[in-house]
Amino acid sequence: MAGIIRTLILTPPSPHTRSFSHPQPNFRPIGNSYFTRSVSSTRSRSISIPIRIRACERPVEEDGSGSEAAKGLVLGKPLLNFVDRNFLPLALVGGVVLGLANPTLGCLADKYYLSKVGTFGIFLISGLTLQNGEIGAAIEAWPVGILGLCSILFFTPYLSRIILQIQLQPQEFVTGLALFCCMPTTLSSGVALTQLAGGNSALALAMTVISNLLGILIIPFSISKFIAAGVGVSVPTKQLLRSLVLMLLVPLLMGKVFRESFKGVADFVDQKRKLFSKMSAICLSLAPWIQVSRSSSLLLLVKPEVFLVAVGMGVFLHIILFAFNAVAIQGLSTVSGGNQSVFAKKENANAFVLVSSQKTLPVMVAVAEQLGGAFGETGLLVLPCVAAHLNQIIVDSFLVNFWLRGDLASKHAKVA
Q: Which domain of life is it from (predicted)?
């Protein structure tokens, strides 16, 4: 028994490892490193005891603010995507709402010619983004341009006779929409929408500029023939011509010269086309904002139901114009060679339908002011045209978004 006890005492204990873990769960090991220390026993034996040291982490926030921020980012991303996809119609609707909510601000902007600045900016951007290949495509599509000019200046004014058959009080609403049919195409929105839709923007530019220049000479004859046979109508030809040159041709040429003259400008603009499209949409939204602000006082003089009828007439007028031009371009593409025809190209068709189906408000306002009350109160003549002008832009902007989504879906289908 004594021998057994002696053996136990003299035999050294087997080495073992003890791990001292920190009670905090937020400590993690730094790599695989261990720090050892020596502990002396009563018999001067050294036992190596590795100690695990864990790095301290930042404690998890208990209030949940981090998770709330993450949720906000997740919810905000779809909203930003929606705004990005529908930027133009949202900008236009926002301009209308702002004009109704605070007319004073819009009238102040009109006092400082901000609407003209917007039109100037749209055509400056058009010149900056106009590529040489697009000019060649516009020249190649000259038959489509001729058809567009005939539709704008000669065919669509016939609708004024149909509109005049409608009985509505005040009668100026009906007469104003009839005058609206005799106007050339919009100065800026048709071009901007064509660019957004990926259409032939050079063709849209050509139809816009030429139709407005020729319209100055043709409008008096159209009004006399379709609306007021035998009534002398004076149109400020010189004033309108000067305005069109300054607001359309000059900024367009400036943008194109700037693009071709300075190295790197073309590459920068082509890389940022989406940004320039948004800038053009913002410039375009200035027109409805200012027009609604200017006409807000007249809205108070008209019964809401009568004004809603006039708005509906404007929408119906635009739908008729759009349907007429869509059928015309489709019919000509069928009889002139089918898919190989210049009328069948999607870029040309988009430009033709968008530009030929719109009517300009600024020229209408200038003409109404020169009529001297021959057809009634000037403000009442213009008011339904303001609504029609806004309707055609908003409707076409949603249509362009629909086209873009369809193109995107078809691309995804081809990739799949």
A: Eukaryota
How far, in Å, CA of 39 to CA of 20, rounded?
14
Q: Which residues 6+ apart lie within 8 Å of 156 measured at CB?
A: 181, 321, 324, 356, 359
> Cβ neighbours of residue 218 under 8 Å, at least 6 residues apart?
153
- Identity at 262, one-letter amino acid code: F
**DSSP letters for 76-145:** HHHHHHHHHHTHHHHHHHHHHHHHHH-HHHHHHHHHTTHHHHHHHHHHHHHHHH--HHHHHHHHHTHHHH
Overall pTM > 0.70? no
Given the structure tokens 């400036």, which residue do they identify? 254
Task: Please state the length of the chain.
Answer: 416
How are beta strands 46-51 and 27-29 bridged, if at all? unpaired
How many Cα atoms occupy the beta-carbon half-sphere of 17 within 13 Å? 8
> What are the C-alpha distances in Å from 404 to residues 196, 223, 335, 407?
8, 38, 28, 5
pLDDT in tens, the chain (416 residues): 444 444 444 445 444 444 444 444 444 444 444 444 444 444 444 444 444 544 444 444 445 555 565 555 666 777 787 777 777 778 877 887 888 788 888 888 888 888 788 888 888 888 888 877 778 878 888 899 999 999 999 998 888 888 888 888 878 888 889 989 989 898 778 888 888 888 888 899 889 888 888 887 788 888 878 886 544 555 566 776 777 778 777 888 898 899 888 878 888 988 888 888 888 878 877 877 887 787 777 777 778 888 888 888 888 889 999 999 999 999 888 888 777 788 888 889 999 999 999 998 777 877 776 666 677 777 778 778 878 888 888 888 888 888 888 777 777 676 66
**Which of 317, 316, 323, 324 has the alpha carbon at shortest distance from 151?**
324
Amino acid at 382: V
Distance of CA 107 to the CA centre of its chain: 24
Q: What share of the chain is helix, strand, coil (3-state, %, to 5)?
A: 70, 5, 25
Residue 308 CA to residue 404 CA, distance in Å, equals 30
Residue matched to tokens 């000059």: 250
What gap in Å lies between CA 52 and CA 32, rounded to an integer?
A: 9
Tell me how far apart the alpha carbons of residues 181 and 358 are, in angstroms, rounded to a whole number: 9
